[in-house]
Model the fold of this input.
Amino acid sequence: MALHAGLSVSDDVVKEFQTIKLGKKYSYIQMKISDDKKVIEMDKTIDECSYDDFVKQFPATECRYAVYDFEYELDGGLRNELLFIAWCV
Done:
């Protein structure tokens, strides 16, 4: 998949996004821009993680993209939302 800014998205990113979106397999997926600045590629996937631990894992000197499966309770029912986060330093 190509983006208008000259970046493309690797097939692994698309596959893992579908896994977190439909399969609810991960707490989050994390992506980064490749060293040659041409592709958004997978960095890591984590099966279980609290939001506090998720926030702590971002690198202090590098940018990342992440999708976090946020679970919360509302009106007595459990809900899930996918949060897209751009971490920029």
